[in-house]
Design goal:
The chain has one helix and ten strands. The chain is mainly beta and about 160 residues long. Strands 1, 2, 3, 6, 7, 8, 9 and 10 form an eight-stranded antiparallel beta sheet that branches.
Length: about 160
Amino acid sequence: MTMPAPVAATPSAQPGNWVDPYRAYNFKLLINNVTEGHFTEVTGLGVKVERISYREAGNNSIVRAIPSRVTYPPVTLRFGLTNSVDLWEWLMTAVEGRVSRRNVSIVMLDAAGATEVLRWNLVNAWPQEWYGAPLDAMSRELAIETLSLAHEGLQREAGGGGPAA
């Protein structure tokens, strides 16, 4: 009787092996498969599952919890002001009451900035809030605008995921 060959563990599964975390500055934003703008910051990626507490029948001392409504906070994008009007026109559709929902992907890149390692997809996103760049004649900073996106869901994919449709 022969014994099966041992299965090789991946390096990240080995105790004591250091796995270098991804760099927060290597990312890009895709809106309907198009890389948009030069984004300096993305915040608000998250999900909240509310809980309902109830007492178990016949046992008043134990309080159980079950999941309830799921909500997604708005995702806020900060980007350098350019002469591109694409994001502004998308915002104006919401201002006019015609919401144009788009699929948005935030793509995390490797340390070299070349290969996709992780992706978050915002489902049916639309612009809900915009703030213009603070202007200061005494400053040498970049003009950074802020745009917040409402969305209906958040998906996470490992590297190499498909583009937002």
